[in-house]
Amino acid sequence: MSEAESRARVMQLLRSLVESRPALALNSYATYRAYKDDSNKLSLQLRDARRLLDEIDKRKRITCSAIIAGIDGGNGRLQLRNGSLTYVAGQYYPMEYRAAVCAAAARIMTKFWATEPKSAVVMSRAALGTGIINRWFRD
């Protein structure tokens, strides 16, 4: 498999995980308001993940190995093994898996921007906006 095909496959695995339904269990919540708060947070994570993955996709200089390093560089819960991407839940899977993809994408973009001539913060804000920067990028 070529570099481009491998990269496309890994990106597709990330997108498939992000697009999978979280399956929140309403009966697990004490109030409807608590359920809606989590539901809204998941919607925001979905939008952020889509935007971050789009940014990675646009930058063809980000190699497949760099993407895999970003996935593997986290807490070990997001795992790419044998051509399959899985998330090992900590406490509550629906609230964690998209956040794990966002964090991995932020690691990938941070490493990429470190090789660019402009400041990572300036490029991040220009490409993604302050909302995503504040949620996923740590100084």
Structural class label: mainly alpha
Roughly what fraction of the amino acids lie in strands? Answer: 5-15%
Q: Radius of gyration over alpha carbons?
A: 16 Å
The first-to-last residue Cα distance is 36 Å
> Which of globular, elongated, flat, extended, rod-shaped describes the shape?
globular
**Count of the domains:** 1
What is the oligomeric state here?
single chain
Q: Helicity level, as a percent range?
A: 55-70%
Low-confidence stretches: none
How do the strands line up in the largest sheet?
1-2
- Main pleated-sheet profile: 2 strands, antiparallel
Q: Helical element count?
A: 6
Q: Using DSSP, what is the number of strands?
A: 2
List the helices and strands in order: HHHEEHHH
Mean pLDDT across all residues, rounded?
90
What characteristics describe this protein?
single chain; 63% helix; globular
What's the quick description here?
The protein is mainly alpha-helical. It is built from 6 helices and 2 strands, in the order αααββααα.
List the helices and strands and how they pair.
Elements: H1 3-19, H2 32-58, H3 64-72, E1 78-81, E2 84-87, H4 97-114, H5 120-128, H6 130-136
Structure description:
- With about 140 residues, this protein is mainly alpha-helical.
- It has one domain (about 5-135).
- The chain has helices spanning about 5-20, 30-60, 65-70, 95-115, 120-130, 130-135, and strands spanning about 80, 85.
- A two-stranded antiparallel sheet has the order 1-2.
- Strand 1 and strand 2 (about 85) form a beta hairpin.
- Helix 1 runs antiparallel to helix 2 (about 30-60), helix 2 runs parallel beside helix 4 (about 95-115) and helix 3 packs across helix 4.
- The longest helix is centred in the first third of the chain and has 27 residues, at about 30-60.
- The model has no long low-confidence stretch (mean pLDDT about 90).
